[in-house]
Amino acid sequence: MDREFTLAExxxxxxxxxxxxxxxAEAGAIQADAxxxxxxxxxxxxxxxxxxxxxxxxxxxxxLKMSIGELVQRGxxxxxxxxxxDRTEIDDCISGKREMIxxxxxxxxxxxxxxxxxxxxxxxxxxxxxxxxGTQVIRAASEPQALLVCIPLGSRLRALA
Length: 161
Prior knowledge:
- It is a single chain.
- The protein has 161 residues and is α+β, with helices and mostly antiparallel strands.
- Helices cover 48% and strands 14% of the residues.
- The relative contact order is 0.15.
């Protein structure tokens, strides 16, 4: 069974303020297990490992001062990616075998994909990752609605292992 996390644990893992994580949950940017969502007094929200991963990613995005509506949309995009991604890649990110994830939203070149994801592979030379990232920065600069975010995979994700 997938490990579950309380709101307090998600707050600790993400480094976000408790009220911020509560807002994400209330707005739907992160989704608690249905049995614990608004279950009443004394029942604490519990989040799946996948939702805790979404929360970690949103914590990185929240520094951009996005509106809660924007974070809800990014959470939905991240959730779709997690559902279809190679689980080995996600586990590698959590265990520290990967160094960074690059998310590129609203890429006009690929309108059928609202979000492109690049995860460096184990053993990839860092300079090739930097070259790739530089190319994406140039591409994002030419697309006014684009959003490019590089999330270094540090110890926060390792707490999900």
